[in-house]
Structure to design on (224 residues):
């Protein structure tokens, strides 16, 4: 038998730590603009001089661009600061185990516990394991239940998988027909919090990343 089920439930809670991107700086050379404007005045046609109102328009335009540049710099700095603050909120998650559908690391002799959620109306469920190349390595029918299942790393042929990251799906059947194949969650230790393109990301053991909002539960990390 390569899996067992248990009716234990997990405590719910959830966080990473990283670095914020440095804001880009856009510099404007006001002195260069003034030199160009002065050169323009010196070399204008004396029979057809540029109107003073035209100079005023150029100055106003440059001033507006300069202010926009400063505003962009301030917004970039504020965004970076908010990113650092957001990461700080999840710093306490480092070292804890987060429950999500992200790939989970498997090591020989250390079974992975997965948490299936059968679809409503399903009369048969099959748990399927995939390696880091999305290749199916194992499948087995399990009870139609939300009880956790322990996978010992057995392959479909009865062998043993190599250490690495694995994901799981639960195939739901009704009346002999496949109705859905849903991702199954596992617990993985949070090793780092870093700033991603859209916000903080939790780095899990094995290198997978997950957004804090995709974490459904937290629990204390296992003692080494």
């Amino acid at each position: 038998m390569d899996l067992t089920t248990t009716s234990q439930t997990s405590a719910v809670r959830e966080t990473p730590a990283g670095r914020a991107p440095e804001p880009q700086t856009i510099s404007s050379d006001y002195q260069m603009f003034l030199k160009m404007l002065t050169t323009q005045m010196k070399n204008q046609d004396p029979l057809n001089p540029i109107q003073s109102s035209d100079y005023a328009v150029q100055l106003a335009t440059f001033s507006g661009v300069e202010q926009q540049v400063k505003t962009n710099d301030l917004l970039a700095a504020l965004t970076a600061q908010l990113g650092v603050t957001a990461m700080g909120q999840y710093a306490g998650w480092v070292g804890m185990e987060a429950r999500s559908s992200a790939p989970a690391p498997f090591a020989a002799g250390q079974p992975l516990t997965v948490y299936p959620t059968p679809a409503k109306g399903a009369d048969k469920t099959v748990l399927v394991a995939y390696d880091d190349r999305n290749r199916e390595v194992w499948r087995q029918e399990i009870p139609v239940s939300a009880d956790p299942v322990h996978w010992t790393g057995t392959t479909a042929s009865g062998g043993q998988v190599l250490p690495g990251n694995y994901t799981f799906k639960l195939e739901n059947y009704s009346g002999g027909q496949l109705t859905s194949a849903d991702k199954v969650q596992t617990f993985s230790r949070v090793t780092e919090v870093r700033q991603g393109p859209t916000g903080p990301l939790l780095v899990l053991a094995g290198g997978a990343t997950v957004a804090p909002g995709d974490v459904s539960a937290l629990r204390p990390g296992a003692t080494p």
